[in-house]
Input
Amino acid sequence: MKTQVQEPIIKRWNRGVEIVRAGRGYSKAELEEVGLRDVRTARNHGIPVDALRNTNYPENVEQLRAVAKTIIDSRKIASRKPKTEKRDSKKKTEIKRKTPTTRNKKSTRKKTSE
Output
């Protein structure tokens, strides 16, 4: 299920002036602070991840909190569902292995005529 996520922001300083711009994705540190430890699940849910970034901005963390809460809650609900199928208590049938047949191998040695 893809969710709508706002673009993350990036801050940089140029000649003493702070410039704020849109980023490519959220950093791993921001995802971990929210509770999303796995980058793959974040990407599957539509959250852009920038693996090259190491910064952790509180504005980005606040944007992620609402989205991460729904993802984590959906995981908990999915794990609580009772399984309807029960495993059979029967043992698996044993597979009979064929014994290798021994063939009369011809000798590879050349016969010497005497």
User: Anything to note?
Assistant: The mean pLDDT is 80. The first helix runs from residue 28 to 34.
